[in-house]
């Protein structure tokens, strides 16, 4: 699946930005895939906690989002993962 210069390969379980492989953990990969599969939809922290393999508790969802943003958002003008206040997060690609 692809969104702009970001691509994930669910068969090999690898993520790429500008054709460079990203160093993502298994859980970061799972979060990224779920966000991309639900692009444009606001997903609550609770929903992510319940539906993403590897997320141990609801509080750590925010950290996985923070770590992913650091890896896939290059430059101030490029925001892929949007915080939806009072709800959770939305992937806008």
Outline the structure in words.
The chain is an alpha+beta fold. It has one domain: Arc Repressor Mutant, subunit A, CATH 1.10.10.10. It contains three helices and seven strands; from the N terminus they run ββββαβααββ. A hairpin with a 3-residue loop joins β6 and β7. α1 crosses α3. The model has no long low-confidence stretch (mean pLDDT 91).
Low-confidence stretches are none
Overall pLDDT metric: 91
Proportion of strand residues: 15-25%
Largest sheet, order of strands side by side? 1-2-3-4
Care to count the β-strands?
7
| Quaternary status | single chain
Terminal Cα span: 11 Å
CATH H-level name... which superfamily?
Answer: Winged helix-like DNA-binding domain superfamily/Winged helix DNA-binding domain
Q: Helical segment tally?
A: 3
Q: What is the CATH class? A: Mainly Alpha
Alpha-beta content class: alpha+beta
Identify the CATH architecture: Orthogonal Bundle
Chain-wise SSE layout:
Layout: E1 2-3, E2 6-9, E3 14-17, E4 20-21, H1 26-37, E5 43-44, H2 45-51, H3 61-72, E6 81-84, E7 88-91
Antiparallel strand pairs: 1-2, 2-3, 3-4, 5-7, 6-7
Helix pairs in contact: 1-3
